[in-house]
């Protein structure tokens, strides 16, 4: 742990100067209380640093959550041990999962499953506005994965037990809502002649109609993301059961956000705590920290470190931007990194190569006082959208 200033504390041993400067800029905003915490996976983001925990008093920064509101992880521990899968075709499993979980709404997802319909109804009941006006197909986005670093994996822990692991968020509807409120915040800054070092640090003042409209949509999108992961995991469980010929019995299910805001109490005050690429790590709370393609992921338990604002990293954290990764690495290097793992062999995934991320072992070493590692997971099947 390193105190960069009284308002910025850092757990990342791998921290480039631009990321450090970006976090320092945000930490100087007058409504930060008591400080911003940088997680071990911190890297440059849009407005706010990815891998940062931002507590605010009397204001909220929409870009501090970002455009994938509620993005996070879900994992299921099955009753199977890896030996029970010997002789089964893992490529057939990957294809079955790809059929069960569409990449996106529209062409890929044309109708609601019964469980998705029930979840959509829950979201309709919670809605305080007409989200059909934002994205007419938002219901069909339930149960869709997305692209980029979103993934589904079949993994094995250190005891040889099989886990199902998934990463996704609030999809297109969350993106549209976030983008709308970021623009509203920027217009508010212009309206009141408030100058900021970065326009993406635009904020909404608590008590205003604009503030509460954002909180309303934020909470709804976070619920959408949670239910989206539940819907997809149910489909993955079904595909896995059909593939192996035995119904999956769930020994454990964990579902956690890593892009979200909620009301919490820290250092004597109630704050709006925004975690952008960080999970809640309150003492005893289970959490999920994925690595990258071809590296380990972790099931963890929070230690409740007060200075970290009860938070921990959410993954490995990028070391290369997507564009620079594509210029630096090759498909052959990706194949070498994915040796022994069933995945779709395509150059579309070069920007997700493990070398484009920080060393996840170092990230977890940096996080030793934030979380306890319960299980280390290794991939055997990987599913991604282009």
UniProtKB/TrEMBL annotation:
Binds 2 manganese ions per subunit. GO terms for molecular function: DNA ligase activity; GTP binding; manganese ion binding; RNA ligase (GTP) activity. Mn(2+) 1 binds at residues 68, 150. Keywords: GTP-binding, Ligase, Manganese, Metal-binding, Nucleotide-binding, RNA repair. This is 3'-phosphate/5'-hydroxy nucleic acid ligase. The active site is at 314 (gmp-histidine intermediate). Mn(2+) 2 binds at residues 167, 258. Its cofactor is Mn(2+). GMP binds at residues 149-153, 258-259, 290-293, 297, 314-317, 384. It catalyses: a 3'-end 3'-phospho-ribonucleotide-RNA + a 5'-end dephospho-ribonucleoside-RNA + GTP = a ribonucleotidyl-ribonucleotide-RNA + GMP + diphosphate. It holds the Pfam family RtcB. SUPFAM superfamilies: Hypothetical protein PH1602. It comes from the Bacteria. Its EC number is 6.5.1.8. GO terms for biological process: DNA repair; RNA processing; RNA repair.
């Amino acid at each position: 742990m390193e105190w960069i200033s009284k308002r910025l504390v850092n757990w990342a041993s791998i921290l480039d100067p631009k990321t450090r400067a970006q976090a320092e800029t945000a930490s100087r905003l007058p409504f930060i209380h008591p400080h911003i915490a940088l997680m071990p996976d911190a890297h440059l983001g849009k407005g706010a640093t990815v891998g940062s925990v931002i507590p605010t008093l009397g204001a909220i920064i929409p870009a501090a959550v970002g455009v994938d509101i509620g993005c996070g992880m879900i994992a299921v521990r099955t009753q199977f041990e890896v030996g029970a899968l010997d002789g089964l075709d893992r490529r057939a499993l990957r294809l079955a999962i790809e059929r069960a979980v569409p990449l996106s709404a529209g062409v890929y997802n044309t109708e609601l499953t019964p469980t998705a319909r029930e979840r959509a109804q829950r979201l309709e009941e919670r809605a305080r506005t007409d989200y059909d006006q934002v994205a007419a197909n938002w219901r069909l986005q339930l149960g869709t994965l997305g692209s980029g670093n979103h993934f589904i994996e079949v993994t094995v822990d250190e005891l040889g037990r099989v886990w199902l692991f998934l990463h996704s968020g609030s999809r297109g509807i969350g993106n549209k809502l976030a983008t709308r409120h970021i623009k509203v915040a920027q217009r508010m800054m212009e309206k009141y002649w408030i100058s900021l070092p970065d326009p993406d640090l635009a904020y909404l003042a608590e008590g205003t109609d604009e503030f509460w409209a954002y909180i309303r949509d934020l909470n709804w999108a976070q619920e959408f993301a949670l239910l989206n992961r539940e819907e997809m995991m149910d489909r993955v469980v079904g595909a896995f059961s059909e593939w192996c010929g035995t119904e999956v019995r769930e020994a454990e299910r964990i579902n956690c956000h890593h892009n979200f805001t909620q009301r919490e109490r820290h250092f004597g005050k109630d704050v709006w705590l925004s975690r952008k690429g960080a999970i809640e790590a309150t003492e005893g709370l289970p959490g999920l920290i994925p690595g990258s393609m071809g590296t380990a992921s972790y099931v963890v338990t929070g230690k409740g470190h007060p200075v970290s604002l009860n938070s921990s990293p959410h993954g490995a954290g990028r070391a290369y931007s997507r564009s620079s990764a594509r210029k630096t690495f090759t498909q052959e290097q990706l194949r070498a990194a994915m040796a022994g793992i069933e995945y779709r062999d395509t150059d579309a995934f070069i920007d997700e190569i493990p070398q484009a991320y920080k060393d996840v072992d170092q990230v977890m070493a940096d996080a030793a006082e934030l979380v306890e590692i319960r299980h280390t997971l290794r991939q055997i099947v990987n599913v991604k959208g282009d």
